[in-house]
Protein: Casein kinase II subunit alpha
Organism: Cylindrobasidium torrendii FP15055 ss-10
Amino acid sequence: MARVYSDVNQRLGKAWYDYENSKIEWSQPDRYEIVRRVGGGRYSEVFEGVDTSGNDLCVIKVLKPVAKSKVKREIKVLRNLTGGPNIIGLIDVVRDPSHRYASLIFELVDSFTDWKTFSTRMTEADVKFYTFQLLVALDFVHAHGIMHRDVKPGNIVIDHSKRKLRLIDWGLAEFYHPGTEYHIRVGSRYYKAPELLVGFRTYDYSLDLWSVGCILASFIFKREHFFRGADNNDMILRHMKALGSEKFDHYLQKYDIHFETDAEALLSNYPKRQWTDYGVNELVTGEAIDLLDKLLRYDHAERLTAREAQAHVYFNTVRLDASAPKEGHVSDSGFCST
């Protein structure tokens, strides 16, 4: 059971989480025009568009054919989170007359396109500010009984010139119910929590906090991806080489997880490494390492929650607004979106 917000959906009632029986009022697509393609993936194609009723720019996410329940779930989640801090705003849902293609219309955030370049130019103030904003978003999401399940740099858009962050792509999000067995084929490999890799299905919100830890590690060590495994077994191996094999074994035993492998490397013993072994620079401070160490834990029950992480001493200056950059500020890194 999750340490926090475990009874949210029970308290809010079936109308809050029952997306299967929710009714969607679709709009006609005529008022929206595609301008250019900006991305896409397994489940959708994403375009910059314009709302011709007011000539406002927007994002048009054209969904590829998937199960109706998946579409309903994403829309239900987005509508439930409407107005939440740092959550991408859903403007409209449209479907063509043939009912074959559905699209979600979102607010447009003028974001950068090269995350790798941005992440290596971030100052300490930038890292603290944006990590904190991500935690604010996740605490709101979790407090409303929802797991994102795919937190990664590609699902975070930042308008650096306006100090604006938005958490996007809610296609894998799910409502949390204690004791429920969930699908483990969620998330993106480099940001998958250990519970997904070892087949532990009764996971909870803490799944998202592991991903935050991976992002923080990539920030402070100036790597595009901190754990970069070739496959799931290789990801586990990289976790073991960082956190040690002894704690991994204790984790499996504590939750009675039957993890079988014939990969010789996974049967070896590895000591826990010091975080500073991965590099030392102006971002690798004692406070940053302490926060990272409390996020990247095998045992999901030991990870900080999003609310607890916000209270960490690492974010003192952000919370007190003593040195957090103001609206429109461009950091000394000289990087801003175009």
